[in-house]
Amino acid sequence: MKNFSDLSEREVLAVAIAAEEEDSRIYMTFAEDLAERYPESAKVFEGMAEEEKKHRHMLLEMYEQRFGPNLPPIRRNDVRGFLRRRPIWLTTNLSLDTMRKEAATMEFEAERFYVKAAEQTTDVHVRKLLVDLAEAERGHEHRANELTDTLLTPNARAEEEKTRRRMFVLQYIQPGLAGLMDGSVSTLAPLFAAAFATHSNFQTFLVGLAASIGAGISMGFAEALSDDGSLTGRGSPWLRGGTCGLMTAIGGLGHTAPYLIPDTWPNAFLIATGIASLVVFVELWAIAYVRARYMDTPFLRAAFQIVLGGVIVLAVGILIGGA
After folding, report:
1. Which of 16, 81, 135, 202 could form a disulfide with 231 if both were Cys (CB 3.0 to 4.6 A apart)?
2. What is the DSSP string of 128-167?
3. Could you report the per-residue pLDDT of 237-254, keeping only the tens digit for each?
4. Mind listing the domains of the chain with CATH numbers?
């Protein structure tokens, strides 16, 4: 993948052209899916698709004037910093709220892209076009929110609060949840393997401590290097990386801490293991709740996925440790 700052002016325009075409097709897919259920809302998406086509035509004209008819084969998936989207538009009968959220995210990302691209280009005419498109995309985001009238209650939060919540999820909830899931699940196997292999609380604590801190460092760097935040608005990569790394370490240390119980206590190993198992149960249900609350995942499905995965990893650790 290329860094956004390394793109040439020709590549910036090519990415923009491809992005406008893809967004137009996504909006038309939404419109077709909504045509029977919400015909008025479908018309809104159709209008948004037509405007994306106009934007593509404007960009293509500018490109051909400056660089000729041949577009380089580069798309936004080839550029570091764009959000990796789930292809939810391939699913039929999506809820109107889900489509509205996806459209708002798409328009927000497009606006950020044009603002950054305008700052990078040196051609006056290209910069003006990109600034105009950024303003148009900002207007699209507000237009997309017209869809809330069909679904949301009068107590729906103001637009500023929605944007703030969306960015809060992108900047903190997503990396924090990824870290908590990794820390809570990935450290189960080494921790309980050490516990049942040694029956020593102190040795088990050292293994859990090393696994938790190591996983935290690894996940922190992975998150920080995955996205510089320049296009997505997800904030500082090191802040996100720190959040992810910290939550990873916390996820592992939660069920490691009970093994601080001194080995000299009566039944120390059984007590520590019982408390650690209870902590694991609480961690997994907390993860399921966060996924249901912020990631639009049904709670029972999230609980089943997380608890099942945790139980499998836990069983693997116990079997290996007891071998």
Report:
1. 81
2. HHHHHHHHHHHHHHHHHGGGHHHHS-TTPPPHHHHHHHHH
3. 788 888 889 989 998 898
4. 2-151 (1.20.1260.10), 172-322 (no CATH)
